[in-house]
Amino acid sequence: MINLSKNTKQPLSLIYLDANATTQVLPQAASAALSTMETLFGNPSSSHITGLQAKQIVDKTRQQAKSIIGADEGKIIFTSGATEGIQTAILSALVNAKATLNKTKSYSLLYGATEHKAVPESLKHWNKILEINAEIKAIPVDEKGQLDMDFIAKEVPNALMICTMAVNNETGVYQDINFLDQTIRANNPNVAWMVDCVQALGKTDLALALTSIDYAAFSGHKLYAPKGIGFMYVKENAPFTPIIAGGGQESGLRSGTENLPGLAALSEIFSMLLGQSEASFTPVKTLHLYRLQLVSALTQAFPEITFNHSFENSVATTLNFAIPGFSSKEIMDLFDAANIRVSSGSACSSKVTRSFVLDAMGLPAWQSESAIRMSFGPAMTQTEIDIACNRIVSAAQALVQSCLTLGTKSIDTHTMNTNSITDKTELEGLVQFKVGGSCSWLYVDKKTQSALFIDPLPEVSERLQTLLTCRGLDLVAVIDTHGHADHESCRNSIAKKLLAEQQSDSLGWPADAQTTNIHGQKYPYIILGDKWLIKIATPGHTDDSISLLLCDPITHSAEKLQVHYAFCGDLILMDSIGRSNFSTSSTPAMYSSLQLMNTLIGKDSLICPSHDYHNEFTTCLETEMTGNSLLRQVMNSEIDIEEFSSKKIKMDKHIIEESGNEIMCGAFTSNLASACQKVVVHEYDSASLTKAVQKSSNMQLIDIREPHEYALQHDEKFTNNVPLTRLVQFVKEQQQDKEQEFVLVCRSGGRSQLAAQALGRLGFENVGHLKGGYALHQY
Ligand code: PLP
Fold first, then answer.
1. Which residues are in the Rhodanese domain (predicted)?
2. Range 683-688 average pLDDT
């Protein structure tokens, strides 16, 4: 295991590199907030001394805000945050515009294509509520994230409002405000202009009074003040409509008793920015050096890294990059294990798997899908940056150790002062690679250093080849179970590269295979270590469909096959039987193939299909026949070919409706609802797990994250590591002991729940998981 901290019992200190999402509250800001709760707790509207003291805090903060944003003229209104400021600006501009609308003219509302969602969503909202019916148009950006000035010049004459941002939250890209100002005003002197300044505060100089900006929104929690405090700038005489009416606070522009703790904290931060405090922020010049240091560590750790923005036109505190071959989720998991917090895409929509900002900049899809953002604030210290850089390199080393990357010499030998490369993590047996609902399978025989790849997906081709090189494995064969209709196989390209000498058929079955006799029938087989891989023709889904049985060698024709894994393509899938309405499908052939499999593989051999639509990983005939009545009827010969065909054709008709965007390769059986109903698994929290461990003498605690995450950090009690990619192998090893108690853990409880459900479905009786994972429990 990589030793990141000297004492593994001690959790690693947190390196927080997600300041653009939010920041911690600095101690001096927190203490100012606390004092307004305990001592200076007055209501700024009260006229007694306690009230006057509170009002003084509000007034001081307002004055400071004016200085910081360079707005001697104009108003500062305190809000709950930037989203409220944005709403208020848009409402104000549109209410004003509505009064003078010319019904015969068409209008637009313009916003930058890389704007935070708060902007286009608010525009849509108020445009509809106020029945303005203007066309909402995104202003394109170039590959550097800069707004298209020609578009603005052309469109702004008909615009009621234009919304731009000073600094982008995903890339740190800043706009040339003066050039924007000239372009806007040269073409429309009166249009309302709002600038989202959230990510600019404390990171660039602002002089709003020198511009024609009408509204600007700011947020406290992006700069070390608490959540729930923000402010907006409104240019002198700009139209204004309060969004909240009531007691008349903020001169009637934003009612509601002031958030005094938030304001006191904000005032502390402002004091630091203005040099009025003993504490100070790191100068921008140094922040640039920090970013360079991070860039250098990242490049050393991941030589293939691509940065998604230019450093010339972005603030020093943001880095956005992608690492070829790794999804954002994988890098987030890796960094989380190294206790470095980063984000993928935008934190406000962390479920989104690609970045609309990078899409708008026209970056290639893979960069947008794998984007990682590292951001820090001006309170960052040299020590934290040093630790971050060390950790980044350690994290990359963990990937090298588990053969996900080959690494570089510099990582392998020189840089790891606290960490030394230990042996690569073991790899033997079956590995499952999943891409969406599709699966590829790698089987490794350690003794002979040979490997077999089945149903290769292009997305995992690079990773597989890295793994083979890193472990010095020889590829024996790369085989497709059929010609896939829903995705491209990369079989040919892998075979060309790694098996150039091998003669094979169109699916990759080697021409020099031997034959064996099973129950009087001849089948071809190849040898892999101490196992045989037998090819069985199983047409039905397509006419070329085959199944590959990895089994013990056969010594006698009549003996029962000992099948370890049955790679049966799309013949039998979890909760379904392969689709049979392609041009080369045949339901009678499928009936015979299913019956043949029944006689060859038995009820409990593990089936490894080419799809896993519901995260069930693997199955066996016994499990399938419980939930899949049609399969049961075939296997028990309760129906004949005709009846099977007519039922199957009906089922396949529904497949298009069930498919959605993906071409589904399995027709779900009639009781899909019950088949897909997830097994209920026991959920532990730290307290109940501690109790359960004390009570049970043989409970096994398993960390089911990937080996590189486990190597970086894990709880000592979770002595076993069974990554999800090896779950099927684990099932095989544990199949004889389904009563054993297991508790699974992962980063946040998602993967452990999936694995526990899958094991439960396969008849494991005592599998639970730690709900919320390591994220919520220091178990
Ligand atoms: N605008 C930008 C650029 C942001 O980054 C954010 C927060 O992510 C917001 C607006 C919304 O700010 P708040 O959380 O204060 O409402």
1. 695-779
2. 94
Residue 730 reports pLDDT greater than 60 = yes
pLDDT of residue 678: 65
Instruction: Report the separation in Å between the CA atom of 198 and the middle of ligand 1, taken as the mean of its atom positions.
Output: 6
Statement to judge: residues 697 and 606 lie in one domain: no
Handedness of CA 20, 24, 25, 28 (dihedral sign): negative
Between CA 434 and CA 441 the distance in angstroms is: 9
Q: Has residue 193 been placed in a domain?
A: yes
User: Is residue 687 situated within a structural domain?
Assistant: yes
pLDDT of residue 649: 87
For residue 297, being part of any structural domain is answered with no
Residues 501 and 594 in one domain: yes
Non-local CB neighbours of 478 within 8 Å, separated by 6+ positions: 452, 453, 454, 456, 491, 494, 495, 498, 499, 508
* Ligand 1 midpoint to CA 116 (Å): 7
Same domain membership, residue 698 and residue 604: no
User: Residue 83 CA: which ligand 1 atom is closest?
Assistant: 16
- Is-above-0.70 flag for pTM? yes
Residue 408 has pLDDT above 70, yes or no: no
Residue to probe by mutation, ligand 1, list 79, 83, 119, most atoms within 8 Å of CB: 83
Lowest mean pLDDT among 101-105, 349-353, 430-434, 763-767: 349-353
CA distance 470 to 464: 10
Under 8 Å between Cβ of 295 and 308:
no
Check 163, 197, 348, 551 and give the catalytic one.
348
608 is catalytic: no
Residue owning the nearest CA to atom 9 of ligand 1: 82
Looking at residues 406-415, what average pLDDT do you find? Answer: 54
Residue nearest to atom 7 of ligand 1 (CA): 21
Q: What's the structural domain count of the chain?
A: 3
Q: What is the pLDDT of residue 534?
A: 97
What domain range is 548 assigned to?
A: 429-624
